[in-house]
Amino acid sequence: MSNISLIIEERAANIGNFMVGRLLPFRQKRSVGPFVFIDHTEVNPEFKGKNVGKQMLMAAVNFARENKLKIIPLFPYAKSVFDKTAEIRGVL
User: Could you write out the DSSP letters of every residue in 47-88?
Assistant: First the structure.
């Protein structure tokens, strides 16, 4: 018997040229106050090695800038891009 009593369907959001899927039940849980949390990124295998992950992250940075939000990069890939790219650190 399964311990899962509730399955929440994925909700997608368009942040420019990318659709971002979330498995959280409420829209307001995507961010807390002026903070957006990047806790995972994943690229379809057919796009690996084509810089799509960084393009997704840059779309999130642009979204944060336009909406006066700060990003908390919890996912190691996102953190590594922020560590290497000084010009986007203003949204941290």
Answer: GTTTTHHHHHHHHHHHHHHHTT-EEEE-SHHHHHHHHH-GGG
| Domain contains 15 | no
Predicted confidence (pLDDT) at residue 26 exceeds the cutoff of 50: no
CATH number at residue 57: 3.40.630.30
Domain residues for the domain of 66 are 26-86
Is the pLDDT at 51 greater than 60? The verdict is yes
Higher pLDDT, 56 or 21: 56
Residue 2 lies in a domain: no
Is the pLDDT confidence value at 59 over 70? yes
pLDDT band at 11 (very low <50, low <70, confident <90, very high): low
Domain count, the chain: 1
**Cα–Cα distance for residue pair 83/4, rounded to 1 Å:** 38
